[in-house]
Amino acid sequence: MSSRQIKWLRQQLEAKKPKKQENLDDIDPVNQTNETPDLSVLINEDSGEIPEVPQMVVTAAPPPPPPPKKNKKTKRNSYDEELEFASLLEASQKVAEEKAAHENKFSMQKLNLVRELKTIIKTNHFDDCLKLPKSSASIRFMSKLKKWPNNIPQFFNFVSDSNNNYKVEYTEYGEQQSSIYRALARLNDAEGIMQLGQSAHFSPPVLPILCQSLLFQREFESATEIALRGLYILQQSLPSNFVPMKSKLLVSPARKDFLDLIAFVARFAFRRCCFETSLSLWKFGISLTDDDPANFLLLAAVPALYAEDREWVEEMINSEITWREVPIRYIPDWSITLALMKLPDDIESLSNEMSKWPFIFEDLGLTNDIEVTPFLSSLGSAFRRRITKYLEKPELDSLLETCAIVAQDIDMSEEQAMALSFWYGVSGDDVEIGDMVEEFVMPTG
Question: Which Pfam family would be a valid example here (predicted)?
Fold first, then answer.
């Protein structure tokens, strides 16, 4: 064996020695690993071949396993659970309110007369009313005119109950002004009422009279300012937690005066051709009560016709709402309004309505052979007067004549008898029919 082969064999033996130190007494001095060396690599001295050194493969050690997660136990007492439940309940109620508001599709901004008026008469005189602060509550919809006083006395006071409904009461200022107005009204002292209006600029009872006088003198901008005063009083009265289209006004001393204020602004908006604003005010007013003490259900259909809000009219007719136990679908204003909205595609609906309510369309040649109560007859006359301008549209001339001819051959006796049966017991002694016609209440000279 050559010296080179011996050297190589020695290296092989050294490589196979264990790294762990052991007791020297236990180690075989000849074969320290207790393994038989591989002598197959030894070859003949004369061959001259050098054995090939095997390659050692070094593999990386596997990563250590992640430490086990410790389950942290949090201590929660009953107080924490109750607090969390309360917060979840509050969040749920908030989501429900937001959803209801979205479904109602009603914004208090629709009550601001100036928004629609600007598009009609192109005026900037009342732009101050549109400048709301960014931090304003959602119930706010207008600001004051700069020439108005900084401190406007509050006339109404809303007192809430546990269900977010309200009683409307007079403030001390409101009680004082109401007493003075009622005394002057009993004396039929028109001059005294006008003088009261010159000093009490934000007293709801005198605002309609001031506005009527200014309209008759064709002082339209001054009359508009009077109406905006009424609108501001309306906004000022509503508490911040008032929920539009949901909160109700309970029977209370000042409720009727508050509803009359809404009616005043709604009529004025109609006279200024702000039909969408007028309708929004009527919608808002209807939502405030269940008993309709101000008879808004007898007034709201016509503004809906001019505003072309067919969806709302259909919704009202299909509802269970009644006026003094008369279903809304049997109030002529509503069913005729819907039939007019269906023209020109559907003439049958209007023909049926003409046959059912012939006393409203006598001028079209229909024969009135039914007996109606004086009150229902007066309602029909007021309604017909209110829709006169609408019926004067050129495109309706031939359609109305056609519907009247078709109506003469339609038998609606059963539906007619059903509708009239609801009206026979209705007393309208407390309903001011004349106040229903906007041009009678607010003439323009």
Answer: Tcf25
H helix runs in 122-189, sequence order: 172-186
Closest CA relative to residue 132, chosen from 122, 147, 144, 118: 144
Q: In this structure, are strands 166-170 and 249-250 parallel, antiparallel, or unpaired?
A: parallel
Q: What is the pLDDT of residue 395?
A: 93
Rounded CA-CA distance 431/412 in Å is 29
- Amino acid at residue number 19: K
> Residues 169, 172, 177, 181: is their CA dihedral positive or negative?
positive
pLDDT of 336 higher than 60: yes
The kind and range of the H/E element at 327 are strand 326-327
To the nearest 10°, the Cα dihedral for 149, 155, 159, 164?
-70
For residue 62, is the peptide bond before it cis, meaning its omega torsion is within 30 degrees of 0? no
What is the edge-to-edge ordering of all strands in the sheet holding 249-250? Answer: 156-160, 166-170, 249-250
- For residue 345, what are the contacts with CB-CB under 8 A and spacing of at least 6? none
d(CA 313, CA 279): 11
Contact indicator for 108, 139 with CB cutoff of 8 Å: yes
CA distances to 39, 238, 318, 340, 365 from 396, in Å? 120, 42, 26, 9, 16
CA nearest neighbour of 112 among 143, 148, 134, 135: 143
CA angle 286, 433, 238 (to 5 degrees): 30
**Residue indicated by tokens 């059903």:** 418
Per-residue burial over 414-424, b if 16 or more Cβ lie within 10 Å, else e, is eebeebbebbe
Q: Is the pLDDT of residue 328 over 70?
A: yes
Q: Supply the pLDDT for residue 42.
A: 47
Structure tokens at 52: 């090939």
Interacting residues of 44 by C-beta distance below 8 A, sequence separation 6+: none
Q: Mean pLDDT across the chain, nearest whole number?
A: 86
pTM, two decimals, is: 0.76
pLDDT in tens, 222-279: 999 999 999 999 999 999 999 999 999 999 999 999 999 999 999 999 999 999 999 9
